[in-house]
Amino acid sequence: MGTELSLHLEGPGDLGRASGAALAEAARLEAACSTWDPASPWSRLNAAQGRPVALDREWLDLLARMKAWQARTDGAFDPVLMALVRAWGIREGGRTPTPVVLAAARRASGAALLILDRAAGTARLALPGAGVEEGGFLKGYALDRLRQAAGTPAGLLDFGGQLLAWGVPVEASVADPRDRRQARLTLSLSEASLSSSGTSERGRHILDPRTGEPCPAWGSTAVVAADALTADVLSTALDVMGPDAGLAWAERQGVAAAFLLHDGSVRMTPAFRSLHPTLISQETR
Fold first, then answer.
1. What span, in angstroms and rounded, lies between the C-alpha atoms of 66 and 148?
2. Strand runs (DSSP E) across 210-275, as ranges?
3. 51: closest CA among 116, 104, 109, 126?
4. Which residues have C-beta within 8 Å of that of residue 130, sequence separation ≥ 6?
5. Which pLDDT does position 109 carry in this prediction?
6. If you count Cβ atoms within 10 Å of the first and of the last residue's Cβ in the chain, which end, N or C, has fewer?
7. Which domains does the chain have, with CATH numbers?
8. pTM check: above 0.85
């Protein structure tokens, strides 16, 4: 999936076997869902030029959940963005598309183009140029599956910077968007996942599905949720919404979210404040 995975597992029994089971699950998800692998079922779906492609029920169910998140977030999250990802060259270091190319990519993007047929066990994309892009949700899904596969009473997984902790509380930190080498806040993470999204590490790589444009570089979001998939989806969606609309949406939904702005300020929802995070003073650095 183009990132690093670290595992820390605790408990009785064979921890080597537990680690092996978790890594095997990561490999299974990579082989099935990674659109970096042209042989994966999801890559075959993207390349099918609108024809139905047989998918396991697990993937049909996951994609249906992602379509539901698109509706719930009023389009701030969307799993069918591959056309825009290609247009902006997100996987090749970035480029600016021509107006004609961008207009075509916009037409070929959006969850409404993904047609799922559970009865037939197939999925198809209504336009040939459309494609599923898993970057905003697959890490979270993988973390939840890896925890289940490991089966240990306690553990900490770190998948590309997204954390999932259970059994024993751990101290987690959220980086300052102006300097990711520095922590801006810390909190105790227990039976939950912490996901962050922003532009400070990879530039303006997060696209707004509603406009087809890269999101402004205003800062970063951090979301804590009981499951890693929800945390992953919402950290992306709230970054797209921005610190004003995102904070209002997260407060209405009861989401534990923080917005770290480039001016040094941090805005938190009541649910995030209830986790008793500690802000790290800028003056002490």
1. 20
2. 213-214, 219-225, 256-261, 266-268
3. 126
4. 46, 80, 82, 83, 108, 109, 110, 113, 114
5. 97
6. C
7. 36-132 (1.10.3980.10), 169-284 (3.10.520.10)
8. yes
Task: Supply the pLDDT for residue 35.
Answer: 94
Q: How confident is the model at residue 284, as a pLDDT? A: 44
Mean pLDDT per 10-residue run, the chain (285 residues)? 89 94 96 94 96 97 97 97 95 92 97 97 96 95 97 96 96 92 94 88 76 93 98 97 97 98 95 96 56
Task: Determine which helix (DSSP H) or strand (DSSP E) holds 183, and give its type and residue range.
Answer: strand 179-189
Rounded-to-integer distance, Cα 72 and Cα 233, Å: 11
Helix/strand/coil percentages in the chain, nearest 5: 40, 25, 35
* Positive/negative CA dihedral, 203, 206, 207, 210: negative
- Give every CB contact of residue 230 below 8 A, 6+ residues apart in sequence: 140, 193, 223
What would the two tokens of residue 144 be? 């939840």
CB distance 125 to 118 below 8 Å = no
Strands 154-159, 162-166: pairing is antiparallel
Task: Give CA–CA dist 270/230, Å, rounded.
Answer: 18
Phi, psi at 137, each rounded to 5° = -150, -20
Q: Given the structure tokens 């092996």, which residue do they identify?
A: 20
- Only one residue has tokens 């336009």, namely 127
Length of the chain: 285
